[in-house]
Write a structure and sequence with these properties.
The chain is an all-alpha fold. It has helices at 7-20, 35-46, 51-64, 67-71, 74-89, 92-97, 115-118, 123-128. It is built from 8 helices and no strands. The termini are far apart.
Length: 135
């Protein structure tokens, strides 16, 4: 685990994740897929700029025990939400439930006629002609 997030703050973040990302509608709970662990570490490697605001948010939560205290600090609330949801939706179990395979390269042959031209999808639009009005 990352040394950038002290254990007390990581535990507070796990408490936030419990409230923000419970298991529901076939989706796993955030802490069940490692959001406060490996997911958080991965996210802060990508977005180290949010760490100060994130830590402020986790400390506000630890002190008050509610999300209301974090919501009162706009920057901290934004960082906490970005960390929680960003880490959640990049975990393989969540992506599997969503059937998200990531971005897939789809090479285009410039000499091939595109399907939308070959199957007649644009015929109605072409036959209609321009519809804009000159100003």
């Amino acid at each position: 685990m990352s040394s950038r997030i002290p254990e007390a703050d990581r535990q507070a973040f796990a408490g936030i994740v419990d409230l923000a990302l419970p298991a529901a509608h076939g989706m796993p709970a955030g802490n069940a897929v490692g959001v406060a662990g490996e997911g958080l570490d991965k996210l802060i490697r990508l977005r180290p700029d949010i760490v100060p605001d994130l830590l402020r948010g986790t400390r506000l939560f630890a002190a008050a025990g509610t999300l209301d205290a974090v919501e009162a600090d706009t920057e901290a609330w934004h960082a906490v939400r970005l960390a929680a949801y960003g880490a959640y939706y990049t975990t393989p179990p969540v992506q599997a439930v969503l059937h998200y395979t990531g971005q897939i390269s789809q090479p285009i042959d410039p000499d091939e006629t595109p399907a939308y031209l070959a199957n007649g999808s644009l015929r109605q639009v072409i036959e209609r002609g321009p519809i804009w009005t000159k100003v």
